[in-house]
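WARN no homologs supplied; continuing
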Amino acid sequence: MRKLALILLIVIVGTTWLFAGTTGKLAGRVTDESGKPISYVNVMVFQNGKRITGIMSKENGTYIIINIPPGEYTVKFVLLSYSALEVSNVRINVDQTTTQNARLARSSYTIKPIRVVAQKDAIVKDNTSSVRDVNTENLGSMAIGSVEDIVALQAGASMVGGELHVRGGRANEVNYTIDNMSVSDPVDGGNALQVDTDAISDMKVMTGGFPAEYGNAQSGVINIVTKDGDSFYSGKVEYNTDHVITSGRNSDVFKFAFGGPLWPLGSEDLRERLTFYVNGGGEWLDGRLKDYYIADPMSDYNFF
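OK structure emitted
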């Protein structure tokens, strides 16, 4: 039993000695141009373009890498704000320590631009009401014709019989506000002023917890902000008709929008401050008996 234990001890010690004798070490010190040590420098060992091992220099600039197989290597010293240094043909011998010092020079580093996309917070802490923002950028590509049609697309609102209902309330329980001015009908409720969808800059639909500034509202509040002119000229003309294909009750809709600076020859600041925006339109409807009955409604009136 003692002989077996002695043999095992010799084998273990011999194996450890053989393992230690098949690798080498790399050590050195990293300094700057004035000889001061540089800490936390990335020291990487490569062979045939493949990284073998690596370490970071200590606070005093020294480093030591153990268990490197014998051979020739390339050692790279990299640290931000310093020029990278690459040393080729560094020889590692068996059971020996190869010393490789490095001196790094200061250099500027250009950071690539970072693109940050802002995201809307899921919960607004200072908001006490249930608000839904309507994205007005895509209104031109949507099959809508009025503000009520836009609101009906939101959750909690619907169009029934041509009337808008929010949270199951009546049509006259919705308060309409345009540019901080109430335009609700004081007698029957509802919207007393129609706004073209091309003239809407921002729109909010409130369905609960209304602030104190919105009075006389029971089921919902629709707050609309109209567009302002820009420092450049832009416009739009739109004409819709169904006379080409269908017959019977026909419809013609004409709309236009135009805006820009009042004084185009002024400075950029003046063009941004003095702007205008004009929007208007009209709609004509024909009944299915239009070809059989033609009347002149203005004939009943006498004008001088």
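The helical segments are 2-20, 147-152, 268-273.
OK
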